[in-house]
Amino acid sequence: MAAITNIRELFINNQSNQENGPYFRSEAAKLIYYLVELSGETQQQKLGIDKSLYRRKEKAKEWRNKISMLIVSDKCSHLFATQANKQLNYLYARMIKYAK
Description:
The chain is mainly α. Helix content is 67%, strand content 0%.
């Protein structure tokens, strides 16, 4: 039962932050979950990834920087912040590989 409580502690929101729903403490926790736990179309949808990010380097960079500012491990103490940053950089590298 303690393990379940600890998992909940990572993601459960205090009721004052409704924009992140009832499951996330913060926007950073939500983004980290999307980056670390989701994949494929679901991940792309939740992270706002669309074809335009694969076409325009500047737009992909803006997308990455917006997320990175919230989850950078220097500012975010979340247990999976480093792992999420690695996944974010991986996704970004794929985007700019073919972008103009």
